[in-house]
Write a structure and sequence with these properties.
The structure is a single chain. The chain has 300 residues and is α/β, with parallel strands linked by helices. It is 38% helix and 16% strand. The protein is built from ten helices and 13 strands. A seven-stranded parallel beta sheet has the order 3-2-1-4-5-6-11, with helices on both faces. It has a two-stranded parallel sheet with strand order 7-10. Strands 8-13 form a two-stranded parallel ribbon. The longest helix has 21 residues.
Length: 300
């Protein structure tokens, strides 16, 4: 039985990764900065508490693992603006520490990155992993730095590492972004002055978790960067319409146009993930929202 270390395991993606890894028959070590008082719906075989900025702790808890799935981080442009130095330390130094720990025991590092690295792309053209990067925020910059370090380490030392770009992740446990479902279930009315036509490549978190676990268990990864998104261009208007169909009486009003506060780009090309480790999304935007709704009651 392979042991997987999942960092950021009390967070949205980390919990789904733990569940996906357990479903694949792995032993799961869930790691986060602290555990007391943290509400969890996903259970691993073991919980450990350490900070990814602590190199010795990273080495200690990686000593017997087959792979580390690194979900910990300062996530999102808004949070990164509050403390850019912490963002640098966690997202870049923390990733470097885990890569050192993984390489030291010949384990693989699966590092969660972001498709916001592609920057502002109003032409909405599909984006392969070879598309130029153009980070717009400190968050994007920190993730690009981490990716660059991982790629350089792989080329220099032959380390087993790859970065996984995702974006617009929705599902149970979401803490950033606006995906409407929790708010309308709470009876709130939502009004957005603009953004109905904003292009999004939505990623259902269950699909993302399954991609990360599949990549962790694949015998070898041919590339150092992978897109793992829905791979389809949708709009925030599509999102609102899908939520209205799921929740009768949902009150969501949206103005036309794009939202200047959100990254604008086309869909990611996800064929590399399909070809290299056999993954493709199981869920559409609509079926992902329906699955999310079915899970909400069981998370209490």
């Amino acid at each position: 039985m392979k042991t997987l270390l999942v960092t950021g395991a009390s967070g949205m993606v980390g919990q789904h990764v733990a569940a996906a890894a357990a479903a694949r028959g792995c032993r799961v070590r869930m790691a986060d900065v602290a555990w007391p008082g943290t509400p969890l719906w996903a259970e691993g075989d073991e919980r450990v508490a350490f900070d990814v900025r602590d190199l010795q702790a990273c080495r200690e808890h990686a000593h017997d693992v087959a792979a580390i799935i690194h979900c910990a981080g300062v996530v999102g442009p808004a949070r990164s603006r509050v403390d850019p130095l912490q963002t640098l330390a966690v997202n870049v130094t923390g990733t470097a520490n885990l890569l050192d720990a993984a390489h030291g025991v010949r384990a693989r590092l699966i590092s969660v990155s972001t498709a916001t690295l592609y920057g502002h792309r109003p032409d909405l053209a599909p984006l392969p992993e070879t598309a130029p990067t153009d980070p717009l925020t400190v968050y994007d910059g920190s993730k690009l730095m981490a990716e660059t370090y991982c790629t350089a380490h792989r080329r220099t030392f032959g380390s087993d590492v790859a970065s996984f770009r995702t974006g617009f992740v929705f599902g149970l446990g979401t803490r950033i972004g606006e995906y409407f479902l929790p708010r309308v279930l709470a009876g709130e009315a939502i009004v957005e002055a603009t953004g109905r036509d904003h292009s999004c490549d939505f990623t259902y978190v269950v699909d993302l978790a399954e991609a990360l676990v599949a990549a962790a268990l694949e015998p070898a990864l041919a590339h150092d960067v992978y897109n793992v998104t829905g791979g389809v261009r949708r709009t925030r208007g599509d999102l609102a319409a899908a939520v209205r169909r799921l929740v009768p009486g949902a009150r969501i009003e949206q103005g036309p146009g794009v939202d200047p506060a959100r990254h604008l780009r086309g869909p990611c090309v996800i064929s590399r993930a399909r070809d290299d480790f056999g993954w493709q999304p199981r869920f559409t935007l609509e079926s992902g929202l329906a699955d999310w709704l079915s899970r909400i009651g069981g998370s209490d």
